[in-house]
Amino acid sequence: MVGTVWLVALFSLFSAAYSAKYECQGVAQYGLTFYGMWSNMTHPNAFPFTPKIGRFSPLVGASLRSDPLWMSGMPASQGVKNVAETGNSAVLEQEIMQRIMSAKTAWKQIKSGNMTISGTESVMNIEVEVTKDFPYVSLVTMLAPSPDWFTGIMKVSLCNASSGMWMDSWTIDDIQPWDAGTDDGATFDAANTATTPPGYITQITRNAPPTNFMYLAASAIPTLGKMMFVRQNKPTMNQCSGMYYYTVKFEAKWSQATHPNGFPSGAHFSPLVIATHSYKYKMWSDMTRASPGVKEVAEIGAEGTLYSEVMMMKKPGFVSNVYKTGAVSTPGGYTSTKIMVQNMYSMVSLITMIAPSPDWFVGVDSYDLCGMNGWKETVTMDLLPWDAGTENGLTYSLDNAATMPVDVIMRITPNSNSEIGAHANITFATVTFTRGEMITATTTARTTTTVRATTTVRATTTERTTTTDSSARGLSADLFAILSVSLLAIFGVLY
Length: 495
Ligand SMILES: [Ca+2]
Ligand SMILES: [Ca+2]
Known about the structure:
By secondary structure, the protein is an alpha+beta fold.
């Protein structure tokens, strides 16, 4: 019986490892270098000298959720038309700003500066920022002078979806010319003749539409440049060996005295969800959208959906264990939980709702208990408030309109005009991680059957949406711990 369970568990883990597509987590910064490779040497008969020598307009683009700035077979936006025809990016920048601020379909603008780029120039370290929700990059630059010809990147993702990791570097070395479909001219120096009605964006080949590129000696158009993205914020990885218990103690500090503005009756923290994991997993993070589970914790303090989400990621390379506690009253309440860390699973994340509130929470995002000198002894953190970006509302109240379109998770700062704002930099709770005993192979079997996953003290309030059965919860958490230890041991051998 037990053997069958093992085989099924192993099989599902293996099939997941071979078929899964992963989101990349958090925020990644890149330096983009653009190498111009457009000259009379590389493109004989397809490089202009009159009325001006060939060059690129400033490179403009954005990190995006899904829809690119321009697409083959679609009409050019006014902004892309202007860049392709004149190199002026003012309207395109307005379009990008609109997508960032109101539609929330773009994250950050990308721009190489205000200078045109000669055909063989390199522009280094153009800032690019992508996030879990906005992993794509789209770019455009005019081939100048020309009627409406441009080049760039339609859409590229900087996330490696098979590993769930941001690319360390990514080079695009075939950059082809495109026609915006807005001007009929067939030569670099043609007079302006608008295409009426406007056509669609099409790739320029040696055969069509009629352009100077027809007279190239080569049979295919050589690349006009190269774009190289290099990650700037690559995480530094510490290596700690062995398996340890840590005690996580969460202490509620939020009170009428610490945060007098609108301190609500029944103030408490919802049941905590705590996960131990590798650098490849994130429960939540600054500047990214809340998962449905995080949204539910932040809005109503219900931990079930998040717990399931973390369980889904409980697989080799991602999550090691997940724990939950009861609710914690404030001020003065606390809860204490024993967690287990090992090897690459050295990080801990947790979250709990500031309750009642619209979508405010405190938590820890991927704190690494492995330091440069091994497993850390004791760490205490002051927890400050965050807004999940999913519900409006400026007071400690539960029922507010949804934030549409949804926003990203952000720290609540003293600039906020909400009730919480004035005291947003005062600790709501503290969490202390204290290293316990090392877990050895012989103690594993004994301790995992006796250690209770959670011990909640003085939690006098419970969430309205949650019925809790602490005995069942303790048992299942213990079972998970055993499964996890054994599976990791097996995988440790296999890999
Ligand atoms: Ca054209
Ligand atoms: Ca909010």
